[in-house]
Amino acid sequence: xxxxxxxxxxxxxxxxxxxxxxxxxxxxxxxxxxxxxxxxxxxxxxxxxxxxxxxxxxxxxxxxxxxxxxxxxxxxxxxxxxxxxxxxxxxxxxxxxxxxxxxxxxxxxxxxxxxxxxxxxxxxxxxxxxxxxxxxxxxxxxxxxxxxxxxxxxxxxxxxxxxxxxxxxxxxxxxxxxxxxxxxxxxxxxxxxxxxxxxxxxxxxxxxxxxxxxxxxxxxxxxxxxxxxxxxxxxxxxxxxxxxxxxxxxxxxxxxxxxxxxxxxxxxxxxxxxxxxxxxxxxxxxxxxxxxxxxxxxxxxxxxxxxxxxxxxxxxxxxxxxxxxxxxxxxxxxxxxxxxxxxxxxxxxxxxxxxxxxxxxxxxxxxxxxxxxxxxxxxxxxxxxxxxxxxxxxxxxxxxxxxxxxxxxxxxxxxxxxxxxxxxxxxxxxxxxxxxxxxxxxxxxxxxxxxxxxxxxxxxxxxxxxxxxxxxxxxxxxxxxxxxxxxxxxxxxxxxxxxxxxxxxxxxxxxxxxxxxxxxxxxxxxxxxxxxxxxxxxxxxxxxxxxxxxxxxxxxxxxxxxxxxxxxxxxxxxxxxxxxxxxxxxxxxxxxxxxxxxxxxxxxxxxxxxxxxxxxxxxxxxxxxxxxxxxxxxxxxxxxxxxxxxxxxxx
Length: 651
Prior knowledge:
18 strands, 6-stranded mixed β-sheet
């Protein structure tokens, strides 16, 4: 069923046209990826869908009664106090009811009156009717998938969360929202590799309509079945996966390029004819052609991949073979160890990916490499003949209070004005924009300035800390091409799996304060990691099934009067006591028989009697059988004893 319709929609802000002629429809259950360069209108599109804005031209229509959820930028969690309540949103009442049921269940052991049982039964029926078990499990699953401890979240206050954690919690709240359409704006921004993979599986498993803005190409490839691409002042819908979109986009651009070139040839031919014949005997034909040419709708030059960023990294000098060395390095922050006893080297020409959970210490290790954070123990150094270019995740390398022009002029004081403006033009800053102050830049614009500065370093070592965070897809593709063509050494910290797959030949995996040196690319490491995760999922499913059985048993026991429960437990206790006595007698009997046979076999006279050797062989076989029986009997005796111990406190 069609849920959203855009018909020739366009939006203007004053004299500026954001986009125009956008036409597409969204049906229930579809998953759309919304891509395009920064500032082309992706956020504006979401505002049109929520009804916050109306189009300047054209129409936007929503299905009657359609509910839409958009993650609020300021992470407003209402009256929620704990992390679990914030994630649950409108389901927080179920949490309070669940707590009450647990308290009532415990109280039934002391008060099994008719009133207490009636209240417990009524609340339990309401909890089940409202889907309590399923919904609370779903909240727990979402919290766990996004890196929170579900049990701890029930009491952890919101005030204890960091900015990144609040971002992940906001995403959890949105995923729990009872809405028909989920609008996700860069949902992977605060996620590490593990939680990003979980989110992929979650989104592909739900039956809601999803529209997401993202620059994570691997995430888009794993989740979407439609793509809306903002380009050239409009948005073009594509049906199919992200990979299919990339192929269709290339074909579309090629067709546009051919049409544009054909029109330019036609215009040049007609212009030449008019110029040669306007005053001659063919003047009438020339004037007619001039009129037709004036009315001809001009095709715009097609957008190409080169229009994103003209980025290239050069190397000024070869440098030594050992680029980075680490010997028993320990890095600490805030009184706790982030990395312990790490030793490793990076050789010239290697492309090394450094991956690990958020907050594990990756950025801190890079700062320590450049002397911006102390090393608690060991030695960490850059080779003596190495010049390093450092792209910081927080973009602090772009100075505040300076113009874009000054940022480049400070690095190239001998350059003429035209060279500085030309260099900034390669990164999308032209005309008067070069005089803008850096404090007025958006995140994406600051990232492009940082790359423009890094390009001038001509370093033989590039250390890149999350370089894709603020870039759009086209800019990331340009960055990937530039790194791939680079002749130096690269250390790359990123959650962009496509970038890691394309570039790395070696991976450092940071986990639980230890760095594992994986001698292969990120794609190979993913395969090995997937095998381990599969085994872990199997174990988790077994544990989950066991927990469900225990929970069902607990609920069933809670429904029964306490006196009946005590009677059943007493009967089971007597049965286990008898089984324990039987097992103990069996063990004693076997031990006696084994001792007797052992004594016979150890008597030297056995082997001097006629037929003694054959008898010894027969007794030896019997002894081995008895020893096996004894082992089984002891195991049964031990299990029965543990069962008796577990039952005894209940009486």
